[in-house]
Amino acid sequence: MKKILSLTLAAMLLLGMLAGCGTEAEEPSAPPVESSAASGVSQTVDNTMSKENPVEGGYDITVWVGTDMVLETQGECWDEYMATFLEENDKCNSITLVPMGDAERLTGIMAGVGLPDIFFGSARDALKYYQAVDLLDLGDLFADTEWSDGFYDSAIEHVTYDGSQYAIPLISYVSIMYRNREIVEASGCELPEQYATMDEFIDTLKAVSDAGYVATQSWALGSYYGTGTIAGSDAANITVGIENNKTTIQPEQLVRTFETLMEIEQYANNMPYGEDATIESFCAGEIAFLLDGPWTEYTIQASGVDYDVILMPPYEEGGPTGGMQGWDYYYGVDSGDEERNAVIKDLLKYLGSFEAEKLWTVKVGRPTLREDVMSDPEVLQTMMCRVQALGNEGGILQMDFFHDNVFWMSVFSDVAPLVIDGTYTPEEGAQASIDAVNALYAEQG
């Protein structure tokens, strides 16, 4: 039989490597190369990897992934995933990756036409996906406790709906701060590994500002991200939930979040979260503390700035750290073919294995939702993973993943600027936030 060539990597150079970290630049496609991950498998540049000798009755599996997942280290991980799975699974003839932007992928899934076998997607949209398409019931995978016990308990809870599991927990992140060590030291401040309390952190912002430096960027402008990060430090006191189509969060539970936001904003400039100019300003040594996420580290490393990574501190010493947790999953689509579904499940189980998620964490530098990976000695050698592992023990979820369709924290984008400009007091901002969340529930019906 004629030798079939396939897979991955539309060769592109992503200067920031991860979303929001820079611009993309193209380079000529590479010629086909033999995979070193497994024998009997070969690859080209069309994002498909195939067996050299396909088996009769085997399946061709399609996976929708993020645009970054065929690039750089993420693409290298997928090369290894596909080569390994094709070598070990005698029912799968090929795997094709289809890189798509987040919005395009969400729209395609919700349309319900031409669906893939597996797709990567935000945990925020989990319930939407469940309601829109026939997701594969993965309860039998999670019944294998030797495999599933490696996940964080909270991760399993938030892929569970109506008594079974419908997604594989993959990427986690906790919002963090990058700290310019030179500026903080030049301001006469110590550099603790983590700040013990919120007061200690805010005192440091003041000292940096008093020394003539810009302490941080705006935590209110441009996004819910800063306010949500602060709310994470009060997570134990915020009763996230829904009752009678209204949030169970009470206004008084958000007052301290807005009070803290106002304290931080005293020492901030007006540069919004997530903007290229904001990140560039930190890389140029102009800002002491940059609020961002682990995806920005590549850009910061490349700048040569002397930095480390810290979490949002607790309000009381010894309490849980703050920050906001965002997650991503792999989902399987029920094909209606029992044998095909079995292959899809096998691939999903492999993608959620200790080996696969550890490879992702070590090679890409992004934390995952397996607790056994995030406590692995090799993983903990990197600063980002150590901090993210600690952050996974605290903080607050962006929303009640898989149990709710309302992204309640999104209301902070509109409310927070009105608190810092004096339109609202912290108490009024808290009430306005609750009113806005309830309006989202009313709109949803």
From TrEMBL:
<keyword id="KW-0564">Palmitate</keyword>
<keyword id="KW-1003">Cell membrane</keyword>
<keyword id="KW-0472">Membrane</keyword>
<protein>
    <submittedName>
        <fullName>Carbohydrate ABC transporter substrate-binding protein</fullName>
    </submittedName>
</protein>
<dbReference type="Pfam" id="PF13416">
    <property type="entry name" value="SBP_bac_8"/>
</dbReference>
<feature type="compositionally biased region" description="Polar residues">
    <location>
        <begin position="40"/>
        <end position="51"/>
    </location>
</feature>
<feature type="signal peptide">
    <location>
        <begin position="1"/>
        <end position="25"/>
    </location>
</feature>
<keyword id="KW-0449">Lipoprotein</keyword>
<dbReference type="InterPro" id="IPR050490">
    <property type="entry name" value="Bact_solute-bd_prot1"/>
</dbReference>
<feature type="region of interest" description="Disordered">
    <location>
        <begin position="24"/>
        <end position="53"/>
    </location>
</feature>
<keyword id="KW-0732">Signal</keyword>
<dbReference type="InterPro" id="IPR006059">
    <property type="entry name" value="SBP"/>
</dbReference>
